[in-house]
Amino acid sequence: IVFEWLPNVDRIYKLIMEIYLVRECCEFRMEENLLAKLIFLYRNGSMRFQYTKAKID
Fold first, then answer.
1. By its UniProt entry, which InterPro entries does this protein fall under (predicted)?
2. pLDDT band at residue 45 under the 50/70/90 scheme
């Protein structure tokens, strides 16, 4: 994933860290779900951009 073009990569970074955490806890079903979400974001450029949009408070 080209992170330089995305507005805010904090949510993707958090998703990756959650994948590592559930893997360490041997929660393989949860890991599979999170990996599916990451792969979906990787394959879908418009969704990836929408997912990383900065939230307006």
1. Piezo, Piezo_cap_dom
2. confident
